[in-house]
Amino acid sequence: MMNNYAIIILATILISFLLDLAADWLNLRALSDRIPAEFDGVYDAEKYRQSQEYTRVNTRFGFLTSTFNLAVSLIFWFAGGFQWLDQIARGWGFSSIVTGILYIGVLIIVRTLLSLPFNIYDTFVIEEHFGFNKTTPLVFVTDLLKGLGLGIVIGVPILAGVLAFFEYAGALAWLYCWIALTIVTLFLQFIAPTWIMPLFNKFTPLEDGELRESIMAYARRADFPLENLFVMDGSKRSTKSNAFFTGFGKHKRIALFDTLIAAHTVPELVAVLAHEIGHYKKKHILQGMLISIAHSGVMLFLLSIFLGHQGLFDAFYVKQPSIYAGLIFFGMLYSPIELVISLGMNFLSRRNEYEADRFAIETTPDPEPFISALKKLSVKNLSNLTPHPFHVALSYSHPPVLQRIQAIRRLKK
């Protein structure tokens, strides 16, 4: 018989699934055969048809993937899989910390293996069909192994620390754990650009020339000390283009995909960099970090409360409570709050994108190169130009490109 915890968790899982399904259905209904006037002369009819087909294929594949994941999760849950695995893990005779690492590790590995066929199909069939994929089987396997290695080197010690805090640190375990996790997170932010990201991509300093000179001149005008300007070999995996800002202090860096440089003019690239610098100048990166730290503190505090509730374990048919199983079950119980937070974070992220756009327009002489860059990126990435507002609210961290261009044009007036 299901208790209140089980009812809440099951209802949340199903509601979240149905919300995504409704958003996808509305998004497909919003597709229009008519090219928006703003993109006349940019999208030809065939390329626009291809972008719509890309949206349809990804939406249907996403539905198949989420349905499979939902079915597997519910079968494992109601067949007593958590209790079965707990008995096996305890039977190995290790300490509670090691048992917890193995228990959670097995679940992660199984989930990864189950998702592997979908990832392979997405990369080597869908992305290949639409001309995006540049990932070779060797790169795909190497990425998996590197991810596994990072999980062992970084993830396992962090998990062990969390389990140890809640096992031995008493009533204030959540506070000590929060402080430790905050320090670790800041440390990882510090070393990631230099030590972690280069494991997956090659970062080459942007060579001297017109582009570098134009970017450095803009950075000086914007009072942004810039030393680490890199080209990332994005073409190693995909033809899609992007640029990003990461790190802080002396270790901050801006990276341009090589595919971005190949497809855009110097003024367009300077405008794109101005947008990225705008995120830094408007303190969006610091804002996101502070919100993430606060969020983890609230989550750990609530975790400390619910770990002592036997009903949470009964909901998953687990007879003997444990910190490691409680981490997983609380994560599922917390999902309604996570859903609401994600909606708020997406809204905040979209607002920040508008602010970064505004900064780029106000600090460059002409907005047209930035508009042109946004259009080229949309065409090259086969972006959906007419997403449904509900789908945007649920899933988009960036505003739809048409809305961004319209906002920029209003700034010109």
Total number of distinct structural domains: 2
Q: Low-confidence stretches at least 5 residues in length (pLDDT < 50)?
A: none
Count of individual helical segments:
16
Quaternary organization: single chain
Proportion in β-strands: under 5%
Strand order of the largest sheet: 1-2-4-3
Distance between the termini: 64 Å
What gross morphology would you assign? globular
Element pattern in H and E: HHHHHHEHEEEHHHHHHHHH
Largest sheet entry = 4 strands, mixed
**How helix-rich are the residues, as a percent range?**
over 70%
Radius of gyration: 24 Å
Keywords: Endoplasmic reticulum, Hydrolase, Membrane, Metal-binding, Metalloprotease, Protease, Transmembrane, Transmembrane helix, Zinc
Active site: 276, 357 (proton donor)
Protein name: Ste24 endopeptidase
Domain Peptidase M48: 205-410
Structural description of this entry:
This protein is mainly alpha-helical and 413 residues long. It has 2 domains: 4-133 and 282-412, no CATH class; 203-263, Metalloproteases ("zincins"), catalytic domain (Zincin-like), CATH 3.30.2010. Helix content is 71%, strand content 4%. A 4-stranded mixed β-sheet has the order 1-2-4-3.
Helices and strands in order:
Elements: H1 4-29, H2 45-78, H3 81-91, H4 96-129, H5 137-168, H6 173-196, E1 203-205, H7 210-221, E2 229-232, E3 243-246, E4 253-257, H8 258-263, H9 266-281, H10 284-306, H11 310-314, H12 323-333, H13 335-363, H14 368-380, H15 389-395, H16 401-412
Parallel strand pairs: 2-4
Antiparallel strand pairs: 1-2, 3-4
